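Hello, quick one for you while I still have it in my head. Could you read through the record and tell me how the tokens relate to the sequence? No rush at all, and the record is pasted right below.
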Amino acid sequence: MSSIERLVQLNKIIKNLPDHPGIYKYFDAESKIIYIGKAKNLKKRVASYFNKVHDNRKTAVLVNKIEHIEFTIVDSEIDALLLENSLIKKHQPRFNILLKDDKTYPSIKITNERFPKFYSMRNRVKDGSEYFGPYANSSMMHTILDLIRTTIPTRNCNLNLSASNIKAQKFKVCLEYHIGNCKGPCVGLQSEEDYLNSIAQIREILKGNIAKVIAFLKQSMNQASVDMHFEKAALMKHKLESLENYQSKSTIVSNSLTNIDVFSLAEDEKYAFVNFLKVVNGMIIQTKTLEYKKMLDESAEEVLEMAIAEVRDTYQSDATEIIVPFEMQLIDARISFIVPKAGEKKKLLDLSFKNALYYKKDRLDQYEKVNPELRVDRLLGVMRDDLRLSELPKHIECFDNSNFQGAFPVSAMVCFKDGKPSKKDYRHYNVQTVEGPDDFATMYEVITRRYKRLRDEHEPFPQLIVVDGGKGQLSSAMQALKDLGLYGQIAMVGIAKRLEEIYYPDDPLPLHIDKKSETLRILQQMRDEVHRFGITHHRSRRDKGTLKNELEAIKGIGPETAEQLLRELKSVKKIKEAPLELLENIVGKAKAKLVADYFKL
């Protein structure tokens, strides 16, 4: 099928798409699903892929590979989101956002049988049993299991405890009964009603409703004391303390908050990390961070929608209130999306965001250790965004001026490539056209000399020029580029005395950079390096010039003789201490006598 025939065929399908919510599937020439998406309006969403030019290269490649389209209508956008999530997990299309952390987490199972048991397992089976979880933190799950086993005795055997088997006395109590971990339902020592009451308490604990269990134990303890069953009362007190101790170690938010899902997002260009917190009865009972690899430059909202669908499916969440960091376009009568500005809900969102940021840093650090180029790309991407550049600043040159009371003016340039100093590209400049302390004219001269040479020798320009100074130095550098015909070809910024203030050409207001940003750290390193490099050269020139002036103060000794003596003996001190014969060998008898006589006075 030619490309024209393909587009004609696809346009026919698009025209017949309904204006309803649903999911759409794109197939390639081999009838393989390459993308699955959801839409509030199927016709508008699918048509948008074909009626504009896509800046994202992967999206353009996807569109060129589409040979066939199928769709499914659903009742609401939430339903479309859930269906999209399940189909992506099933088919794993090439161009869909990729859920990186897709391992199976354990859950707690309450079996569907007479005298149910409970235990942890990874793979759920549809056998009518109840499942709680999954638990991303397995240590937390085992803490809950240990708590339940020590406070609520239940059986852990595999016996078939049917009414007829118990009546026929087919079983005998085991060690678990003798050590107090089971009440012996197998021999009729615990009724089914009492056993199911214990299971109900376990169910409440797993749901996070510890308060109900605590109230029940307090009532039982008080009643045992009234009946003078002191051993039973002491046992209840011990269980009560265990539950209260567990509750004190749990993250308590507010007793007024219940059945709330919290989502936050931290992302960069390639990856997105979504943290989820489940709050029941004021306690955070579940937490997990999902990691996604972006495929088609997905927006933050698209990623968050995917995570919400994944969590509601995996955790079987039925929360009607969802806390999110920004407004969502999802509309569903059963769910309210809240963007809190203050209070307990805002604290929950901040806590979730901290978890997402920590997870992001940890994962990216791991990736960068395996592939150091990822760190460079990420750092340059941060600098590009912070400094509002149009391309990655792989090559940066930073300039600074130095002078000593108006004398010996010099300028220095340091070069950073891929975020690191490139010392072989450093340059010193002895100012040639400026008299006196004129930083603006000095900057103009040095910028002109540097980039005229690069232009004339057809050398590559940097992506960014950094001028250490305020608006005056920046204006001089900008004028130099204009006179060279290079203005607009190289990005340029000026660093003010307050490092976090960045100035741009033709913009009177500075840009303020976050003090914790990696961009500020690189700029600080550049400024320190150009200062060090410039001052070292300046001191050398200044010292040399000062010494020459002292020698030239000797009547009959000119600049050339002074230069000759310093070149051979390196310092004025050694010239003072040198024997007459040595001086004569360097500058002749007449001038040697003038120098020797001067320093003997």
About this structure: Residues 564 and 586 are 8 Å apart (CA to CA). The chain has a mean pLDDT of 82. Residues 518-552 form the longest helix (35 residues).
